[in-house]
Write a structure and sequence with these properties.
alpha/beta; 11 helices; 314 residues; globular
Length: 314
C-alpha cells in the first residue's frame, strides 16, 4: 500500500513538473499566429520609453512602406518559410542583413535601419525571424535556432548577389544575439562585419535578469523555463551563447548599447566586447533606452559605424 501511495505521489509530482514546464514554455517561447497589420496600423513597442520616439517610428514605417522594395522568401534548415524585405541603395552596394528582437518584427524593430543603411551607402534586407512578423513558426529560441536561419540568409544573399558582394549581418536585442551566435559558426569571407545592437551575453543571463526584474524567484523558475524549452520546444537554451560565440568569431564585431537600457543591461555589451577575440569596437550611446540607440543619436550612430568600416578596411 505504501508503495502505491509513493507511486501516486511521484506521478502527481511528475505531472505538476510537466505542467509547470509547459506554462513556462508557453509564456517565454511560444508565439501565437501573428495578425497582418492594416495599411494604417503601426506596431509600436510597449513601454513609456518608446513614447518619445513614437512619431519617428511611425514616420519610418510609412516611409519604408512607400519605398521601392522586394518581398523575399527562403526556407529554413527545418522547413519553415522565412520572409524578408529588400531595399536597394545601389546595384553594387554592400548588403546588410538585419534581424529584429524578441517578439518583434522586421518593420517594427528595424524601420529606422533602412535610413541608417542608406546613410552608409548600403542596401539592406530586413528579416522577420522565425515565429516573428510574417515568417512561419511558433517557437522563439533566443538565437539558438535563429543563428542557423542567419546562415541561410547569408547563403541566399551570396547566391543572389555573388561571392564578391560584401555582407554585413546586424541585429537588435535578440537579433544581435542571433548574429553574434552566427559569427561563432564558419562564415564565408564575404561577411565582413557583425553589428550587435543591445545584445545579451546569453539567454540564461537575460532570463535571469528579467525574472529578477519581475521580483520572482530565479532558482525556482529558470529550471522550469529551460525544461519547457527542452520538452516542448526541442532545444536547449544553454546550447550556446553570444559570449561563447564572440570568443570564436573571426569577423569584426561592433557592439552598440545605450547606457540607460533598462531591459538588457549595458554591462552585457561591455563584457561581450571584452571577451571578443576578433577586431572589435564598443559604441556607447548616452541616454538611450533598449533598442533606441539609433533614434537617440542618429548622427553619432552612423559616424561610429562609418569609422569602424574604415578601421576594418571594407
Amino acid at each position: 500500500m505504501l508503495i502505491q501511495y509513493l507511486l501516486i505521489a511521484l506521478g502527481v509530482l511528475v505531472f505538476l513538473v510537466l505542467i509547470a514546464a509547459f506554462v513556462c514554455f508557453y509564456i517565454v517561447f511560444y508565439s501565437k499566429q501573428r495578425r497582418p497589420l492594416g495599411p494604417d496600423e503601426y506596431n509600436i513597442p510597449p513601454g513609456s520609453v518608446y513614447e518619445a520616439y513614437r512619431d519617428d517610428m511611425i514616420g519610418w514605417m510609412k516611409q519604408i512602406r512607400r519605398m521601392p522594395h522586394e518581398n523575399i522568401e527562403i526556407k529554413s534548415y527545418d522547413g519553415l518559410t522565412l520572409r524578408g524585405t529588400y531595399y536597394e541603395y545601389a546595384p553594387d552596394a554592400t548588403v546588410e542583413l538585419l534581424f529584429h528582437g524578441y517578439r518583434g518584427s522586421a518593420e517594427r524593430d528595424l524601420c529606422g535601419g533602412i535610413e541608417r543603411c542608406f546613410a552608409l551607402g548600403r542596401s539592406v534586407i530586413i528579416i522577420d525571424q522565425r515565429a516573428g512578423g510574417k515568417s512561419d513558426g511558433h517557437v522563439i529560441t533566443f538565437g539558438i535556432r535563429e543563428r542557423y536561419d542567419c546562415l541561410s540568409w547569408i547563403d541566399y544573399a551570396t547566391e543572389r548577389f555573388g561571392k564578391d558582394r560584401k555582407l554585413v549581418i546586424g541585429g537588435v536585442s535578440m537579433g544581435a544575439a542571433t548574429v553574434m551566435m552566427a559569427a561563432g559558426e564558419d562564415l564565408p569571407d564575404n561577411v565582413v562585419c557583425v553589428m550587435a545592437d543591445c545584445g545579451y551575453s546569453s539567454a540564461k543571463d537575460i532570463l535571469h535578469t528579467v525574472i529578477r526584474q519581475m521580483k520572482l524567484p530565479v532558482k525556482l523558475l529558470y529550471p522550469f523555463i529551460r525544461l519547457g524549452g527542452l520538452l516542448y520546444g526541442g532545444f536547449d537554451i544553454e546550447e550556446t551563447s553570444p559570449m561563447e560565440a564572440v570568443q570564436k568569431a573571426r569577423v569584426p564585431i561592433v557592439f552598440i548599447h545605450g547606457d540607460t537600457d533598462d531591459f538588457v543591461p549595458y554591462d552585457m555589451s561591455v563584457k561581450l566586447h571584452e571577451a571578443c577575440t576578433s577586431q572589435k569596437k564598443m559604441v556607447t550611446i548616452t541616454g538611450a533606452g533598449h533598442g533606441l540607440a539609433f533614434p537617440a543619436d542618429r548622427e553619432g550612430y552612423v559616424e561610429a559605424l562609418r569609422e569602424f568600416e574604415e578601421e576594418c578596411g571594407f
